[in-house]
Amino acid sequence: MDFQDNEPEAVVTQRLIDGTLGILKTCLRSNTVKKVVYTSSITAVYFNKIKNVEIMDESYWSDVDYIRSEVKSYVSSYAITKTSTEKAVLEFAEQHGLDLVSIIPPMVLGPFICPKMHGPVRTALSPILGSRKNNNLLLNLAMVHMDDLARAFIFLLEHPEAKGRYNCSSDTVTAPKIVEILSTNHPEFPIVDTLEGIEGAKLPGLSSKKLLDLGFRFKYGVEDMYDGAIKSCKEKGLL
């Protein structure tokens, strides 16, 4: 993920599209791949001209032209790349009769194995870390536990009726709720930032009705996500 815009957006986007379609072509040639689950992103849903929407389902798409002209964010190029690639993937699958589903995760939180505190964890723990970078996301944050996301991948891969796009978000949480969870469940870490006065647009929630209607059930809530993330941070000496 090139959040630093080290290369032109068009170059990164075309490279990702070409690479992803190359994998799908290999799947077709193999004659052994029965189904593909593609990983999209919430950034392929959120960024468009539509206003005053409380929750977005799979019919919503980010608008690439809108992102280029209106979205001034570190995530702009990434959103364009993920949106363009998902559309190309779905079009390719339809044209070639490839059984493919696209899963759309929001912020993923929970236990982690990487040695450092990655971006989502740092943002989610900003009330105890004191970092205000990107914490406008916490105004209204769609989330899913890492293990639930992994289960959803397997579920969609194995379900014969799974088609198209699927949002995978179990909860939407606000900044005050995040502060409450941290102060109640993890009092050993003082709240250094109450998140009051955060400025920015309140992002919509992400509807997972389509996934739930297919029979999937989430096992973990927001408190589980924070417990898992903090446990991993402690084990790695990051907190």
Automatic annotation (TrEMBL):
Q: Which residues form the signal peptide?
A: none
Q: Which UniProt keywords apply?
A: NADP, Oxidoreductase
Q: Does the keyword NADP apply?
A: yes
Q: Where is the NAD-dependent epimerase/dehydratase domain?
A: 14-167
> Does the keyword section mention Cytoplasm?
no
- Please list the GO terms describing molecular function: oxidoreductase activity, acting on the CH-OH group of donors, NAD or NADP as acceptor
Pfam families recorded for this chain? Epimerase
**What superkingdom does the record give?**
Eukaryota
Which Gene3D superfamilies does the entry link to? NAD(P)-binding Rossmann-like Domain
Entries under PANTHER family matching the protein: NAD DEPENDENT EPIMERASE/DEHYDRATASE, VESTITONE REDUCTASE-LIKE
For this chain, the family text in UniProt reads: Belongs to the NAD(P)-dependent epimerase/dehydratase family. Dihydroflavonol-4-reductase subfamily.
Question: Under what name is this protein listed?
Answer: NAD-dependent epimerase/dehydratase domain-containing protein
Q: State the organism of origin.
A: Gossypium raimondii (Peruvian cotton)
